[in-house]
Amino acid sequence: MTSSRVRFANTANSAILGVLSLCVILSSQVDTSLLDPTLIGRELQMFARDALGVDEMQNYFDGLQYRKRTIKGKDIIPQLAVKLSDKFKTRFVVAKRLKKAVEESYARSAKAAPQTECCNVDKSTLKYDERFRSKVDLDNVCVKISGSASPNPVHLDEGVFKEMKDILKMYPFIKWQYFGSEQGVMTNFPVFDDKEKCDKYDPRYRPFYVETATPEAKDVVLVIDISASMTGEKLYTAKEAAKTVLDTLNPKDQVGIVSFNTLASTPGSVGGQRRCYNERLALATPTNIGSMKNYVDGLVPFGETQYRLAFEKAFSLLKGSISKESGNNKKRLILFLTDGTPTDSKIPIFETIRNRNFELNNSVVILTFGFGSADQAILQDIAKQDTAKHGVPANTSVGDITVILTVQAYTSFAIAQL
Hints:
Distance between the termini: 77 Å
InterPro entries: Ca_channel_alpha-2/delta, VWF_A, vWFA_dom_sf
Structural class: alpha/beta
Signal peptide: 1-32
GO cellular component, one term: voltage-gated calcium channel complex
Keywords: Signal
Pfam families: VWA (PF00092)
């Protein structure tokens, strides 16, 4: 082993000298004519042989002993399956322990004292740990509190912290442990130096939270009014609301956007690579979400307020996204954001809602949001899908009456006065 190290050390030194020699040789022979490729080739061969020791290394590798072994896939697959199963089982045990500790903390009547925010930790208590590849404090926890968190949010007590420490001791391969609450607080173990602003992080928008809170995939269409009246703060608020919805979607969800005024448009209306957005919903992947956010940011107000075309396009996207697996039983939502009374006739609007939802077995829930002086009455009727009130008889052959009852239940919070 020692002789090998000496040999390769000498080779490295020779390589350095070889590079210098090659530079000297080439620089000394450069003139107004181009370099002779034969000369360069000869010098590179000498460099590889004498400086890098290519021949010597090749001889060494040629002398190594090896043996062939046939691996049968059907024999190793069960072994791999057992190993993977054991890994998941251990992590399930850890998750259940944390779940139990959190539930017990919430059940205890005593209010836990607020913990130090991760952005304000005492850096002198942090020590580098190779498992986390950063400086941490293994004796404490810290919290990240969203700027939109509930007033006086609930904090976890010492029982949870003790459980996290015990888990780390018992399972050294388990690294970060954390819990995000519906109030906008994330408890993190161990403590680390958070470089972000204290109120910037909101666990409720993170994939781990969204996928847990809404495990069932759903289809969502955001319908945004961009008529001439949607100026200033109203359109800004609608854009921010739409982007917030996009941030909270599960990657298994499907989503589409319809903007409307005199016409109804989608991110794919202009064609190009994104024309599929005009035909069906897209999976809520980071790439698709990014494209839709860019589309929302570029919306400008002009034109009239044509409801019917907007609903026609929204239902078309939903219908074009039905798969054999989901059928008509999937949860489907239309979020309708507007500030004004429709300029088109109400009867065609409610006929479109009735007929197109009937095609989907009345599986579509419509949530309406009014901005400013929006016509609250018609938005409530749309949320209820009360077509009869506007001269459009309801379908008597409804696939599932409980779906309509669900739609009506959304009325109480379907309107947001801003």
